[in-house]
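Dataset card, provenance and construction

Sequences and ligand SMILES were collected as paired inputs. For each pair, a complete structure of the chain with the small molecule in place was predicted and serialized as structure tokens. The example below shows a pair involving pyridoxal-5'-phosphate. Curators did not alter the output after generation; any descriptive sentences attached to a record were derived from the structure itself.
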Amino acid sequence: MNYDKNWAKVDAASIPDMKVPAPGPRSKDIHSRAEKYMKGYSSQVKLFPVAFESGHGVTLTDADGNKYIDFSSGIYVTNLGHCHPKVVEYLQKYTGQLMNCHDFSTEIKTLFLEKLASMTPGNLNGIQMYCAGCESVEAAMRAARAHTKKYEFFSFWGDFHGKTMSAVSVTQVADYTTGPRAVGMHLAPAAHCYRCAFDKKYPECKLFCVDALEKQIKMEGTGNVAAIIMEPIQGWNGSVVYPDDYLPAIRKLCDKLGILLIVDEVLTCCARTGKMWCVDLYGVVPDIMVFGKGLANGFPATAFAVKEEMTEVLEKISASTSYGGNPMAAAAGLASLEVIEEENIVEKSAKLGDFIMKKLIKMKGEHKIIGEVRGKGCLLGIELVKDLNTKEPFLEAGKRVYQIAFSKGLAWIPANHTLRMSPPLIMEEDVAAKALDIIDESITIAEKEFGYI
Ligand SMILES: Cc1ncc(COP(=O)(O)O)c(C=O)c1O
């Protein structure tokens, strides 16, 4: 397919373009009418209840005609920009041709599976397709149980794997609505070095947390541990990046204890971190891997893959899904994977991420409330603290900076006192620079409001 490779190019001087104070009157009307029926929005919406009307490339337009720079990609989803022409064309074709035929084979699904299998690390080529990230996480966990005939799982403090019952049991946010964690689900401290659970310093600690995890598995587990499930970079917890030797050490521990490693790449996948898969940053191949969000650039399509020698488990758990792998999902997925290759998106993500990170490091030196800036590729975060020494989380500033920047035309993602950035990977540097100027100004305004300057 031919399309203008500059389809998303935008004059940085022309954005953001805020025509009325946001959220404007149409946004307010649309959102308040929806809110009469639907409750339980994310903090992203609660803190800035704007209603969006369209998206093109790296910009979003709200119902009042305000144009924003997109520093969220939805929620790490539209990695290739909004309405990428190739994704749109593939989707349109199948929307008019065949929407659903349950799990019968279609040529487009076969092409998608062939493509994905050719790109996964190692021999992770036994695949099932689902619609939501949590569904693929659930299926991955069932596959681990089917393979090991064991039922316990370990995950990590701060992890997020979704809100269905098993996924939420290996997620930090489990609360009274989800009930106690399911039997056999354990959480352990991870290598969140800025806030080390053991008050140690990396690298002198020699990854003490991995030794502690081994002890916890032996003491707390009942000898029935099927797998460790983990995010390779924690998204919901505030873009928490682990030291380079952490994932390899976890892989080694799994091998030593004879348990499986499930890496949940729902958020980190598909070039987001400057590599096709986040595990590529660390040279680790898991036994099971979960994909989502950027996999089909906005169409609900997720998947999980097991290594070849485990493929019989796919038969055991069967793929129970009405929509998973439907022709539209497969088409959007295939188009997205092809674009990633054809447009060198992995390299673009790494380069843009480096550009942003350099600016963030400079910003950190200029503000009293930035505790840490971190990230890999275009998965980035700024952690705000009340005091650089005590590192007390600055929750109020997290909200204010998010709102101020949004009102100036930056669509992005809050996470308590950490601000998360996830620009489309096709963004030009001059546009990213404008977004970062908005963030810089917004932090300064918040510092003034809270009496820091
Ligand atoms: C790492 C990770 N796993 C799983 C999920 C769940 O995905 P979904 O919301 O599509 O169920 C998310 C969602 O943000 C996620 O970040």
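Derived descriptions for this record:
The mean pLDDT is 97.
The pocket of pyridoxal-5'-phosphate is lined by residues 132-134, 137, 160-162, 231, 235-236, 264, 266-267, 292 (CB under 6 Å).
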